[in-house]
Amino acid sequence: MKDITVGLEEILNILPHRAPFLFVDRVVELDAGKRILAERELRVDEPHFAGHFPGRPIMPGVLITEALAQTSGLLLALTAMDGGEDARGRLFYLARTDMKWTEPALPGETLLLESTHQKTFGALVAFKVRAFTRRKDVAAGSLTLARIDG
Predict the structure, then answer these.
(1) 116 confidence band (pLDDT: 50, 70, 90)
(2) Cα torsion for 127, 131, 134, 138, to the nearest 10°?
(3) Residue 90 CA to chain centroid, in angstroms?
(4) 52 is catalytic
(5) Do the beta carbons of residue 106 and residue 57 sit within 8 Å?
(6) Which terminus of the chain has fewer Cβ atoms in its 10 Å neighbourhood, N or C?
(7) Within 10 A of 147 (CB to CB), how many other CB atoms are there?
(8) How many domains, the chain?
(9) Is 89 left (phi over 0), alpha (psi -120 to 50) or beta?
(10) Which of 122, 106, 115 has its CA nearest to residue 32?
(11) Mean pLDDT within 46-62
(12) What's the Rg (C-alpha) of the chain?
């Protein structure tokens, strides 16, 4: 495991997502092929907080799951790049998820996004994932990404 910093500019070169649907700000740890830890600053001005819920904003669980899927995609791309491949432009779709949300993620917090590679079978890649803040676990479970060629 090595501490690294992959910033937003490099993430934008790897992932196809853009605001307001990019949910990873930086990568802070990488064990190529095994595990990644990324961060997302939850800013009060993000559009989902305005309606989810007025007066008591929390990040929707489906968006936390999306952030974990994006983090998992970064693990795949950064692992390929670590091996000398150009992984920019590869597309992976969320194919399956089994998540449990335990606590809300609030504006002003830093959401930590952890993904650990479990298994690859053909074009499908399975991960164990967890989202947490400095004060609590927020969500945990598993997800599968499907590689889309073409």
Answers:
(1) very high
(2) -140
(3) 16
(4) yes
(5) yes
(6) C
(7) 16
(8) 1
(9) left
(10) 115
(11) 94
(12) 15
Residue at token pair 């070169």: 13
CATH of the domain at 47: 3.10.129.10
Can you tell me the distance from the alpha carbon of 125 to that of 146, in angstroms, rounded to the nearest whole number? 6
Enclosing domain of residue 143: 2-148
> What is the per-residue pLDDT across 14-53, written as a single tens digit (0 to 9) for each?
999 999 999 999 999 999 999 999 999 999 999 999 999 9
For residue 149, give the H/E element and its range: none
8 A C-beta contact, residue 38 and residue 3: no
What pLDDT is recorded for position 90?
79
* Two structure tokens written together for 24: 């990873």
Catalytic residue (choose from 17, 48, 52, 117):
52
- Residue linked to tokens 């690859």: 120
The DSSP call for residue 128 is: E
Helix (H, G, I), strand (E, B) or coil at 111: strand
DSSP 3-state of 61: helix
What would the mean pLDDT of 114-136 be, rounded to a whole number? 96
pLDDT at 129: 98
- 111 with 59: CB under 8 angstroms? yes
